[in-house]
Amino acid sequence: MGSIASPRQLALALGHSESFARDDFLEGPANAGALALVDRWPDWPSRTVVLVGARGSGKSHLAAIWATQAGARFISARALEATSLPAAFATGALVVEDLAENRFDEHALFHLLNLAREEGAYLLFTARSAPAGWTVATADLASRLRALPVVTLQPPDDALLRAVLVKLFADRQLTVEESLISYLASRIERTFPAAREAVAELDRAALREKRPVNRALAVDMLRDRVP
After folding, report:
1. Cα separation, 208 vs 35, whole angstroms
2. How far apart are CA 221 and CA 5, in angstroms?
3. Which among 73, 107, 123, 215 counts the fewest CB atoms within 10 Å?
4. Quick one: CA torsion of 62, 37, 96, 195, rounded to 10 degrees?
5. What does the chain look like in DSSP terms, one character per residue?
6. Which CATH architecture has domain 156-222?
7. Of the candidates 56, 79, 69, which has an alpha carbon nearest to the alpha carbon of residue 21?
8. Contact 148, 49 (CB under 8 A)
């Protein structure tokens, strides 16, 4: 007769999910400007805005919040094709994710910007760097990209990093002590991806070694790393 999985094992089997709801977005000085932009819609300085931030900085979460408010559709920048653009603004708003230098169709992007202007639609781009500094072959497109308003997400401060760590553990149904949060916050790289990886690694180690997720486990996990 097979053994019955423990609740913790069942949680692993079912996985975990990260909510992109407005109430689950953690605000701090690093993202206050970007969140304020999303919250003030449709009172924007321009109907087209670029949201810039490092990987894992919260761009997709903010875009999801805005999309819910504006009824926006989503498309990847790599998927932009001029032939498919006529229906892009069917709802009057569009999120174009992961716009990156040399990784989009210049003709399609220029057409999209013109179409947004003609239809008075709202357009939100997410990118890891500001497009003003990109090398673009189409002169008119380069000029348009340089003129786009940019809102930048900064690396998290200590308070935001701690709050993110608590949330990441909670997403995995783990309640941890403050001593663990303090230990991790002082030793991992001050980025959201680093926090996410540290939490995931601790969760895996706890399951593998059948130990609780606490400071002692984190000390063992980070023992050979440079503080």
Report:
1. 38
2. 26
3. 107
4. -30
5. -PPPPPHHHHHHHH------SGGGPPP-TTTHHHHHHHHHTT--SSSEEEEE--TTSSHHHHHHHHHHHHT-EEEEGGG--GGGGGGTTTTSEEEEEEE-TTSS-HHHHHHHHHHHHHHT-EEEEEESS-GGGS--S-HHHHHHHHHS-EEEPPPP-HHHHHHHHHHHHHHTT----HHHHHHHHTTS-SSHHHHHHHHHHHHHHHHHHT--SSHHHHHHHHTTS--
6. Orthogonal Bundle (1.10)
7. 69
8. yes
Q: What is the CATH number of domain 23-152?
A: 3.40.50.300
| CB proximity list for 65: less than 8 A, separation 6 or greater | 20, 21, 22, 25, 38
The predicted model scores a pTM of 0.82
Give the pLDDT confidence of 163-210 residue by residue, as tens digits: 999 999 999 999 999 999 999 999 999 999 999 999 999 999 999 999
- Model pLDDT for residues 71-107, shown as the tens digit of each residue: 999 999 999 998 778 889 999 999 999 999 999 999 9
Residues of the chain with CATH 1.10.8.60: 156-222
Other C-beta atoms closer than 10 Å to the C-beta of 174 total 19
